[in-house]
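Hey, quick one: can you model this chain's 3D structure?
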Amino acid sequence: MPHTNTEVNIYSPKQRFVLLIITLVVLGLLSFFGLLQYLTAFLGAGILYVVLRPWFTALVHKRHWNRTAVTVFLLLFAVVVLVIPFFALTSLLIDRVAELAKHPDQILQAVQSVERKVGMQVTQENQVRQLLQQGAARVSQWIPTLASSVLNVIVVVGLMLFTMYYLFMQEEAFLAGLRRYLPFREKTMDELSISLKNNVNSNVLGQGIVALVQGLLTGATLA
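Sure thing. Here's the predicted structure for all 223 residues.
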């Protein structure tokens, strides 16, 4: 009779199960660290979802408007109100910083003007000039880095908008999945939802006010 070779696995079923778990954990960690730079996109999408959800609920669930149209409108609203002004202000700020880096004497003149108005001298011209030259050198090194990171920002914004689209279009499935997999009672889930909504709204409002004040002060300083 011909001899048949049967291949025998060197691992037992338990060992294969352990190796499978280890492989999945390693792949999960690699995926997590690979997507870590895009974590802000998911966080931003979650924040905007919480902020814009009352509008979505009022238009879709109460007035029965088309879900896709409302979702596209909210995405366009986020782009027009948040994304475009951010890119515009960033571009203006980079140009302004680059100009000041090339001409640090403007900052020195502004410091001297403030000192004359206050009526006291708190700095020495040589020290200020040295600090400005060091700052200008660092800014000159940062500008190419900022320019090269524009593509990464575009990817993050695109991923954020895509995540927002999914959250609004698949809202029921998303919320049902949260309630199913989070280890909390129904009452606790409702309390957490209200607390999260209040915290997000208060943080957005507070940061908006702080940003407005900082912008006004910066504009008045650089004007």
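One thing worth noting: The first helix runs from residue 13 to 34.
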